[in-house]
Amino acid sequence: MFLRKIRKRLLNENNFSKLASPASKYFIYAIGEIILVVIGILIALQINNWNEERKQQKTINSIYSIIKNDLISDVEIFSSLINIISSKDSIFKRIISKKMTIEDYQNCQNCIHLLAGFADVKIEKRGLNLLSDNSTLFSSQEDSLYIKISKFYKYYDTEFAVTQKELTENHTENWFYWKNNKPWFSSYFNANQTDEMIDYMVNSWDYINRVTATYFLEHHLRLNQLKGYKRDALGIIEEIDKRLE
């Protein structure tokens, strides 16, 4: 209605329209109508584009918020794992350096079952899955945060998977070797002690080697990976907060 009033005012004020024939005036009027329709369509398209961009940005922000929550959860869980693994460092080193005595094992149940198992590491991927499913909303050439998050998950997913596989193979090999070769395996499985078991742990080079291998996997690989994940995750959380401000 506003554009129509402007068109009529311009027609009334135009000197040519005053001198033109009725047919010419009608032609001018028709052209004005067409221009109004085109302008209206362009405005409607622009408004629709704005609305669509707002919806897309809302979706993008929602995905980043979920990724942030995933990372916060991972950092909390991994912090506990870091503390658990770090707390066993001195025991590993004492065994490897052959400083553990029979009395030490008798008074330390955790020392005896040091190789009994390990915790699985699982990355929360709700936000990552949404990021992948909605990748068309992100411009890989422009959104540096999208690129950083994608590389972050790809790197640590691979790192954790490789170490998890090696830890599993190491644990399985120990387990089946003891099951097939050591009469005290049943006692070990049931968290009991025997003199023969403790003697093996104190004096056997085989046990020292198995502890050394596990120490390398848990402390030199997994522990450093967990610390790296925590450090990098906190950095991404900070960047997400800036993006959502």
Describe the structure.
With 245 residues, the protein is mostly helical. The chain has one domain. Helices cover 82% and strands 0% of the residues. It has helices at residues 2-13, 15-19, 22-87, 89-96, 102-106, 109-112, 126-133, 144-181, 185-189, 195-203, 205-244. Helix 4 (89-96) packs antiparallel against helix 11 (205-244). The model has no long low-confidence stretch (mean pLDDT 85).
How would you concisely characterize the structure shown here?
By secondary structure, this protein is an all-alpha fold.
Q: Please indicate the count of domains.
A: 1
Q: Regions with pLDDT < 50 over 5+ consecutive residues?
A: none
General shape = rod-shaped
* Terminal CA distance: 39 Å
Integer-rounded radius of gyration: 35 Å
- Give the structural class: mainly alpha
Strand count: 0
Q: Per DSSP, what share of the residues sits in E-state strands of 2 or more residues?
A: under 5%
**What is the helical fraction, as a range of percent?**
over 70%
Order of helices and strands: HHHHHHHHHHH
Largest sheet at a glance?
none
Mean pLDDT over the full residue set: 85
Task: Determine the number of helices (DSSP H or I, runs of at least 4 residues).
Answer: 11
Which secondary structure elements does this structure contain, and how are they paired or packed?
Elements: H1 2-13, H2 15-19, H3 22-87, H4 89-96, H5 102-106, H6 109-112, H7 126-133, H8 144-181, H9 185-189, H10 195-203, H11 205-244
Helix pairs in contact: 1-3, 3-7, 3-11, 4-11, 8-11, 10-11
